[in-house]
From TrEMBL:
<dbReference type="Pfam" id="PF00293">
    <property type="entry name" value="NUDIX"/>
</dbReference>
<protein>
    <submittedName>
        <fullName>Mutator protein</fullName>
    </submittedName>
</protein>
<feature type="domain" description="Nudix hydrolase">
    <location>
        <begin position="5"/>
        <end position="133"/>
    </location>
</feature>
<dbReference type="InterPro" id="IPR020476">
    <property type="entry name" value="Nudix_hydrolase"/>
</dbReference>
<comment type="similarity">
    <text>Belongs to the Nudix hydrolase family.</text>
</comment>
<dbReference type="InterPro" id="IPR000086">
    <property type="entry name" value="NUDIX_hydrolase_dom"/>
</dbReference>
<dbReference type="GO" id="GO:0016787">
    <property type="term" value="F:hydrolase activity"/>
</dbReference>
<dbReference type="InterPro" id="IPR015797">
    <property type="entry name" value="NUDIX_hydrolase-like_dom_sf"/>
</dbReference>
<keyword id="KW-0378">Hydrolase</keyword>
Amino acid sequence: MAHNGIVLVVSVSIFRDDEVLIIRENKPTAIDKWNFPSGRIEYGEDILYSARREVKEETGFDVKLNGTTGVYNFISSTNNQVILFHFTGEVNGGSLNLEEDEILDSRWIKVNDLVKFDNEELREPRVLKQIIDNLLKEKVHSISIYNEQLSK
C-alpha cells in the first residue's frame, strides 16, 4: 500500500528445522534478487493476514506466524519510503508452488549462510542484512505485540 510515497510492506522468514526459505525475485524493481517472501499491504488489510497472504501467493505455503524481528523504515532503491514489518513463521500447510511471473527460484538455507550473499545479490541489502543479523542474534519478539485489525 502506498500513501504519499510511503509503502507498507510485510516480509516473512519461514523456518524449517534449522533452515530458512529465500526466494529469487523477478519483479521489475528486483530482477534476479534474493529476498524473503514479501509484498505490499493492501488497503484495509490486517498486517498479519497480509503477511500470510503474501507467503501463500509467492510460495504456495500456508504459514503460522510466530514472531517478529521488528519494523524497518528505509528509502528503497525506487526512492519510496518503506515501512517493513518482518515476521518469522513456519509452514503449516500447502506445498511449494512459486508464483510464476514474479519468482524465479527458491532455496532452503541456513541463516548463517545468508551473510555470504553479496549486496548485488540481495534486494535492499542494508535492510536484509539487518534482518539477518537480528535472526542470527535471535532478536525475535513475540507476535503478540501486534493487535488484530479492528472492524468498523
